[in-house]
Write the structure tokens for this entry.
Amino acid sequence: MHVKRVKVVQGVLDANNTIAAANRADFNRTGVRVVNFMSAPGAGKTTLLERALERLEALESDLRVAVLQGDVQGSLDADRLARFHDVPVAQINTDSGFGGECHLDANMVRTALPSLPLGEIDLLVIENVGNLVCPAEFRVGEDARVMVCSVTEGEDKPLKYPLMFRACDLVLINKIDLLPYLEFDLSRLLANIRAVHPGVAVAQVSARTGEGLDAWLDWLLGVAGRAPRAATVDASATPAS
Amino acid sequence: MHVKRVKVVQGVLDANNTIAAANRADFNRTGVRVVNFMSAPGAGKTTLLERALERLEALESDLRVAVLQGDVQGSLDADRLARFHDVPVAQINTDSGFGGECHLDANMVRTALPSLPLGEIDLLVIENVGNLVCPAEFRVGEDARVMVCSVTEGEDKPLKYPLMFRACDLVLINKIDLLPYLEFDLSRLLANIRAVHPGVAVAQVSARTGEGLDAWLDWLLGVAGRAPRAATVDASATPAS
């Protein structure tokens, strides 16, 4: 049975790649750059997105951003973004099939595209379902992938979920304001990230205190073609001293 | 395509339930009680398990426990448990199929059973892959299910991952030692848990300070038939004042 199942899954992944290419073609045609934003549940994706949108507002940036929210159920995160009046937000709920899909796939994203004004935006941020496994396996037509890893999750996560860390162009290490209260070895996390994805860009951030958020916004601007992508992100991942 | 896929998945779930029943029969025949232990990545499952095993050692309990560790890759958690010399530990890695299965299923557990001395243990704790979606969908033949929800993950998780919270007999709210450093409303989390699973047993714990761990151990002893299961677990989920 196990072999059969793998075949079914491979078929699903092939179909996914075909649809991801169709999404990609639509994004290219309309000039939209796309970020696939991933993490474990509660690592801080939505809050980091709010901080970036606030900064773009404060800078009076002309970058036009839209967000596609993926959740098993509900629209809590989309609701949080409603205050950004210039940011179109679409919601995908994955609970219609199965007991709830644990990831977005290219077809789900494709289904949502008609509800987004692709011709009027520059950057689409796709906030994936909180999960460190399957979201890394399904391309959705994105230009770049970023994941958030919170320091409260422990140093071992890159070794336990290597595909997610390998699939990413940027790792945001979030909640660094909590470091004084944790038994957490940041240099060990950084070494583990390097072990599974040598040279990946890493930024240490705190959505709460604002530390490191310039690097996060610069990276987003870079994906959108507005600035050198890795300008202020430390690809050598040296621990803050 | 989406409808077809749901049918495939339903077939997988039916096959899973058949194998889960076979596991159940083996557990019943050998007198083993089984706990399925679930959470998001980094919520603290392994540490809470270590604390429970330490307490059983300190109590010189005659309860014989074994652990089945589920991870996408590696044996980091199993290695952490190696110091408990009387606790047999078996490891399942889910990375053989797919890019890595995001959950344990009944067949994976069944494959691992020959490596565990079922006739010589009373309680088997199955530590699932860190994920709040799919592990809740696959029964593995367990008697009871417990999940860990860390306060660093935010108050909204029961609303975003309702199946996981509904599928559980006990919710452990972990890392309560961090509450003073978080913008976190514990009563909102408790209300959200109640909204999706009225009456579920809830215990507030800190694996670090030891707070609440008696309730966790009592619950495990209860599953193993050694004590009233809900003796010290607060099923009304009143916030600690």
